[in-house]
Design brief:
Its main location: membrane. This protein is an alpha+beta fold and 686 residues long. The protein contains 15 helices and 41 strands.
């Protein structure tokens, strides 16, 4: 270890075989040089030295940039600070004699931190890209009489990361649904949750916040909590102007999608914001007021109640009458055999959902008229309904002979009540009365995806652009289930009929009756009861009951292939070959004939390269080995960014291809694949 902090491995002749200065982490020291291709990567947290969310580097064009990085994939987002310089041979120098840091160009030096000189004889010095994305220069007196003196900040960039880091993608300096506060002599950064929101992980605030209440519904009773000098500038979906403050607040309260209203007096502007809130910041320069929508019963418990003395006896009488009626109704209306609130995972859920009575649902569905029946699945029939206020709903009614029983009913209620994402179907409430158990959902005007992609007439309504949007939407919903929600959830029955489409053809994942919650440190689980749909289930799940997030990735890969080809993953016979869809795609991929795969109803005018890329992503998802399949974070990145290089896919799982004779000689393969009209299958694990 040299006196300048450089750790070296030297040969007998004194030459350096390896030195730490050539492999920087998050810190640069005096006499160290960062050239083109070298940079710093922040640590994850103040006390966690894993690779973090920010990098700085000198590009080959001579520009020094700071930019956020996706932790899972390493993908670099747009820079949030740069010197905007050009030139060959640029490099960052930490001058050992003066202690100054600068970007050395061919003809000039750019001092991007304060030039004040601190002698290396008197001070230890370093410059660190900290976990919050701020590049700070530190000094520590060598003659410090106390170890508590600490490192002092003497310069930093950017001047205000909360303001600088406003990217079109990602959550900003802090996580989604939080806001950033910066200031002080060292430009300290803090991430804070809005009222009635809590951190997903208090030890990792960058993951953002989640509401402490259930997903909003139009029948819920909400109020607004005011905050000054706060905004989430990239989360607006509607701008109203001119408008006064009271009307701005009313507009948000009356809009199911509105989570926050932002009002600016100057110009009488109002912005309605939806979740997830991104790029939040609080500062004096934010000349706006935020009104955060929260349930009425959560407003700090300081309500003032005025009781007129003469009304006390009447109120007591009403209370007694209410208790009497409540006890009477409890005897008449049986509840679930096991209370919904009894399990740890579903604690408090009865307060998060509307509880509809049987009369309301019967009235809404015209007494479950056959004309209102939308379809039927393993759970039971699904009906369209209309509530008294005009809201359209979908009612899933658990049939008495349903393959899915009480456990699946409770499982679906417990899970979906805690989930909130634009690509997941939204539950409005439930009805539990006598032997009846029903789930009430938002109504999807265009029903399910399978009614479009497997029908030539309906499929013509989905051009290539809309199909790609649907694929990406499903991917984002699945990423939320696997990684971005408060729970890690494995769906286990992802298929075309469980993807619902709203009036704008936006996809929403539905049917969580067979879903499972994984613990934070859990990678997979094994079951003796395999439940799912043949054609979509992964090999490891069918063969030995093992499932994980990679099982859902396999199902998603099948969906990609079905959406682009318009064909089901079933056995087909073509040109003397018998194969399933996966085998058909794999064969044409190997022969370079994938253009023949695309659904003919899309027409001829589509970007072949984009669709071929999607086919390749689909094949990566259905690879036989679960470890070979990408995670959903990687899938979303591959679908959203054409600059990301794709690996060559390995042979898929359940890839059935060959002549009829070859197929007959492989009875195991034939048994493993059956038509995917079978919605729920139960097999005893070996």
């Amino acid at each position: 270890m040299l006196n300048n902090g450089n750790f070296i491995l030297a040969s007998s002749d004194g030459s350096f075989r390896w030195q730490s200065f050539d492999h920087p982490s998050d810190t640069i020291l005096p006499s160290q040089v960062l050239g083109v291709g070298k940079g710093l990567r922040s640590r994850l947290m103040d006390t966690n030295y894993s690779s973090g969310r920010f990098e700085l580097s000198v590009g080959s064009d001579g520009n020094l940039t700071f930019y956020p990085v996706n932790i899972m994939t390493g993908y670099a987002y747009d820079p949030y600070w740069a010197t905007n310089t050009t030139g060959n041979g640029s490099r960052i120098l930490f001058n050992e004699s003066t202690g100054t840091i600068y970007l050395a160009l061919a003809n000039s030096n750019i001092y991007f931190l304060p030039q004040r000189t601190y002698s290396v004889k008197d001070f230890y010095q370093r410059a660190t890209l900290d976990f919050d994305g701020v590049f700070r220069r530190y000094i520590y007196p060598k003659n410090a009489k106390s170890t508590s003196a600490g490192w002092s900040t003497v310069g930093f960039q950017p001047p205000d990361i909360c303001r600088n880091l406003t990217t079109k993608t990602g959550s900003g300096a802090c996580g989604f649904n939080s806001y950033c506060i910066s200031g002080g002599g060292n430009q300290s950064v803090d991430c804070v949750c809005p009222p009635d929101y809590s951190f997903q992980d208090p030890n990792r605030k960058y993951k953002g916040c989640m509401p402490d209440f259930a997903a909003q519904n139009c029948k819920g009773k909400f109020t607004l909590r005011e905050m000054n000098n706060v905004d989430w500038p990239l989360s607006a979906y509607e701008h109203l102007s001119p408008i006064d403050e009271d009307r701005c607040k009313r507009e948000c309260l009356g809009d199911c999608n509105c989570a926050v209203a932002i009002y600016q007096d100057d110009g009488q502007n109002c912005w309605k914001k939806r979740l997830p809130l991104s790029n939040g910041r609080m500062s004096d320069y934010v000349d706006r007021r935020a009104f955060v929508k929260v349930p009425k019963d959560s407003t700090n418990g300081k309500k003032k109640i005025v009781i007129v003395t003469t009304l006390v006896p009447m109120l007591l009488l009403l209370v007694c009458l209410g208790l009497f009626l409540w006890k009477k109704n409890r005897k008449q209306v049986p509840t679930l055999g096991i209370p919904i609130t009894s399990s740890k995972e579903s604690r408090g859920m009865d307060l998060e959902l509307n509880l509809y009575d049987m009369f309301t649902i019967e009235s809404a569905t015209d007494n479950f008229s056959i004309n209102n029946k939308l379809g039927e699945g393993g759970f039971g029939p699904v009906y369209k309904g209309r509530l008294d206020d005009g809201q359209e709903i979908a009612v899933k009614r658990l049939s008495t002979d349903s393959v899915q029983g009480l456990k699946e009913f409770k499982n679906e209620v417990m899970l979906i009540a805690k989930l909130q994402h634009k690509n997941l179907v939204r539950i409005l409430g439930c009805c539990i009365q006598g032997e009846e158990r029903m789930l009430i959902y938002e109504y999807m005007q265009n029903k399910s995806l399978d009614t479009f992609i497997f029908d030539k007439k309906q499929g013509a309504l989905l051009n290539w652009r809309k199909r790609l949007d649907i694929i990406i939407g499903i991917a984002r919903g699945l990423l939320y289930l696997h990684q971005d929600s408060r729970l890690t959830i494995i769906h286990r029955d992802l298929k075309a009929s469980n993807i619902l489409l709203d009036k704008d053809m936006n996809p929403k994942i539905s049917d969580f009756g067979t879903a499972r919650i994984f613990k934070a440190d859990q990678n997979q689980e094994k079951t003796r009861m395999v439940i799912g749909t043949f054609g979509y289930m992964s090999p490891e799940y069918v063969i030995d009951g093992t499932f994980s997030v990679k099982s859902d990735v396999f199902s998603f890969g099948v969906l990609i292939l079905e959406i682009l080809t318009g064909k089901k993953n079933r056995m087909v016979h073509q040109s003397g070959y018998s194969m399933n869809l996966i085998g058909h795609v794999w064969r044409l991929w190997a022969e370079g004939r994938c253009v023949e795969l695309f659904d003919e109803v899309m027409g001829c005018s589509y970007p072949i390269s984009k669709l071929l890329r999607c086919i390749q992503v689909g094949l990566l998802c259905v690879q036989e080995g679960s470890k070979d399949r990408p995670k959903m974070a990687e899938v979303v990145l591959m679908l959203s960014n054409e600059g990301v290089a794709l690996q060559e896919p390995k042979r898929p799982g359940f890839c059935i291809e060959g002549t009829p004779t070859e197929q007959n000689s492989s009875s195991w393969k034939q048994h493993s694949i059956t038509p995917n009209e079978v919605t729920v299958t139960m097999l005893e694990g070996r």
